[in-house]
Amino acid sequence: MKKTTFLIFSAALILGISSCKDDEAPTLGVAPTEADAAFTYAPSASNKNIIEFTASNTGFTYSWDFSNGTTATTKEASASYPSKGTYTVTLTVFNSGGSAKSSQDIIIAEDDATLLNSPLFTFLTGGAAAGGTKTWVIDSTRSAHLGVGPVGGTWPEWWSADPLIKTTSGLYNDKYSFTLTDFKFDHFTGGYVFVKTGSQSQFSGAFQNSDDWTAPFADQIGESWTIIETEKDTTLKLTGKGFLGMYTGVREYKITKLSENELSLRYVDVADPTTAWYLRLVPENFPVDGGGSGGENPENTSTIVLPIDFEDGSDTAQWESFGGSTLAVINNPQNGGINTSNKVLETVHGGETWAGIFVNLKDKFDFTTGGSTITMKVFAPATGTFRVKMENFAKPTENVEKDITVSTANQWVEISVDFSDAGATNFDRLVLFPGWDVANAGTFYIDDIDQK
């Protein structure tokens, strides 16, 4: 009797457990249908080339593809179509049961150039007035044209590339052409591209080179680009197989700076999601760095000659800053002592310890007959090191640099740097590092640069 009772109890217990498991099993909802993904659209009141879209049903998660390179995830959304044509817009809806989608063709009858007047579009493509096509290259002859740092950072704090450090990698031959009409993108590879370790399996024939991989890769012509602006950031997105810089598995790039002569980007590494890469591009014929392809034999178009006194203000257009520094020619705010000039060069030191300014000169320095010393007047906010560097414009890896101490702060002083041991006639670029090796070193004033 006891044995029977135990068996009955055990069976009941098993049934109870089984019943509990059945009750707790998850259930999926009803999958949406194409009808659930229906949507309506109409031109906006402000512009017939801006289309407003509305999903017809509620209770779903939404994903729009507007066929112009942009997307959205809200029930109501809008998209701009500057160029005439037919665009197939797709709405996909999701719930716990699955997903469904529907598509409609949107016909844009006429071009609307006003939608292309974004300053970002103009900087990237040159704008309609300049032909609407602009070609960019790696800023290979300046430091930090390529770099790496942690995701979530704002600068390449782990490593920055020296000038021309990847000359044999296939990186510097690449050219990137952006066209305003139809948002066309062309990637000219020169036959090879540079690939980050972890993504080399995507390229047939890839071989180890320059610390990562080089791979044969044909030109990618007739692809497309778009710029997506949100409150958080601005993204440059490419479609197709083309890409920018060293390939890390992505074709979306956060724009950290876009101006007439600079396109700086930050992008992730798919093989290492903790890592962010940085890339700086310049226009193909930008005279300061001579463009890509190693920067060999660029054309120096400078008109600057010594001495430089900044009195007419025209010199500043040919100066460049780096490392986050700024520069401007202003009225002398510290007129007195050894400097009663009306105009001086002001530079606010950037966040990088190596920040500074430079200028190309029309002619090479001649340290045999023109004097071996470079002098200038400096007004510094604190005592410290001031570095002066000479470079060969056509080959910046050929350079010499000297440090001098500014021993008096908040007063005009003259500093002199002796280059008698430098190459006699090798250099035609002057690079200044006020506040050397100090981040955000403050505001410096510079005047009366000469050779004696």
Task: Outline the structure in words.
With 452 residues, the chain is mainly beta. The protein has 3 domains: 34-114, Sandwich (Immunoglobulin-like), CATH 2.60.40; 117-295, Beta Barrel (Lipocalin); 314-451, Jelly Rolls, CATH 2.60.120. Helices cover 7% and strands 43% of the residues. It is built from 2 helices and 30 strands. The protein has helices spanning 2-24, 119-125, and strands at 39-43, 50-55, 61-65, 71-72, 76-80, 85-95, 98-108, 133-138, 146-150, 159-160, 175-179, 184-188, 192-195, 207-209, 212-216, 220-229, 234-239, 252-259, 262-269, 272-283, 319-322, 326-331, 343-348, 356-360, 373-379, 384-392, 395-406, 412-418, 429-433, 443-451. The strands form 6 sheets. An 8-stranded antiparallel beta barrel has the order 8-11-12-16-17-18-19-20. A 5-stranded antiparallel beta sheet has the order 21-24-29-26-27, with no helix packed on it. The longest helix is centred in the N-terminal third of the chain and has 23 residues, at 2-24.
Entry keywords:
452 residues; mainly beta; Immunoglobulin-like; Lipocalin; Jelly Rolls; eight-stranded antiparallel β-barrel; five-stranded antiparallel beta sheet; 43% strand; elongated; disordered N terminus
Shape: elongated
Q: How confident overall, as mean pLDDT?
A: 86
Mind describing the biggest β-sheet? 8 strands, antiparallel, barrel
| CATH architecture descriptor of the largest domain | Beta Barrel
